[in-house]
Amino acid sequence: MPNCKTVVPYRGTPEQEERLRQVIEAHKGQPGATMPVLQAAQAIFGYLPEEVQIMVAEGLDIPLSEVYGVASFYAQFSMNPKGRYQISVCLGTACYVKGAAAVLAAVEQKLGIVPGSITPDGKFSLDSCRCVGACGLAPVMMVNNDVYGRLTPDQVGPILDMYK
User: Fold this and answer.
1) Residues 75, 147, 104, CA angle at the centre, nearest 5°?
2) What confidence score (pLDDT) does residue 75 get?
3) Residues 107, 117 contacting (CB under 8 angstroms)
4) So where are the chain's domains?
5) Does residue 39 have a pLDDT over 60?
6) How many other CB atoms sit within 10 Å of the CB of residue 159?
7) Residues 159, 141 contacting (CB under 8 angstroms)
8) What pTM was computed for the model?
9) 42, 47, 41, 35: which is closest to 23 by C-alpha?
10) Which residues form the signal peptide (predicted)?
C-alpha cells in the first residue's frame, strides 16, 4: 500500500500474534466475526497494519478484501501506527477561522510529517479532526489528553519540545 506518509515497519511481537490467534480461534465460524476480531486486533496492536489484516483474513478464512473493506470503512479503525504522543489539530469551523491551518502547518514543519503519519522514531503521530468540543479555546491542539488552546503557530515548537 504505497503512499507519501512515513512508513514504519511492522513491529508485532510473537506474544501479540498469539493473542490475536486466540481471538480468531474464539470467533472462527461465527457470522459477523470480522468486526469483533478487528476490534480486538486493534486493541492488541494499536492499529491494523497489512500484516495483521492478513492474519485475520487467513485465520477467519475470508478474503483479505473483506477485512480491508471493514477496516477502511469504520472510523474507529486505524491502519496507521500511533506515536507515543498522539497530536490532533482541530480543523472544525471555529478553530479553522481562528487560524488552525497555520497551527497544523507549524506542527507539520516541526515534526516533518503530515496528518495520518508518524515520526520515524515512533514518538509522535499527527492527525487532524473536525471538533474537540473546545470551540471557545480555538484554535486547539491536543497531545494525547492535554488540550492546548488559543494557539498561534509560534507556540507549537515549545509545546512539542516539552514532549521530547
Assistant:
1) 65
2) 79
3) no
4) 14-73, 85-161
5) yes
6) 17
7) yes
8) 0.72
9) 41
10) none
> At how many degrees (to 10) do helices 64-73 and 50-60 cross?
130
Packing angle of the helix pair 34-45, 14-27 (nearest 10 deg) = 160
| Side chain identity at residue 88, one-letter code | S
Output the CA angle 161-103-118, nearest 5 degrees: 60
Distance (Å, rounded) from C-alpha 111 to C-alpha 160?
Answer: 9
Question: CA dist 11 to 51, 89, 122, Å?
Answer: 10, 27, 11
Report yes or no: 93 and 82 within 8 Å, Cβ to Cβ. no
Contacts 24+ apart (CB under 8 A), 13-17: 16/44, 16/45, 17/55
* Residue 56 · residue 64 · CB < 8 Å: no
What 25-30 contacts at long range (C-beta under 8 Å, 24+ apart), as own/partner pairs, is 25/59, 27/60, 28/59, 28/60, 28/61
Topology (CATH) of 85-161: Glutaredoxin (3.40.30)
Q: What is d(CA 62, CA 97) in angstroms, rounded to the nearest whole number?
A: 46
Of the chain, the end-to-end C-alpha distance in Å amounts to 30
Q: Average model confidence (pLDDT) for the chain?
A: 93
d(CA 154, CA 4): 26
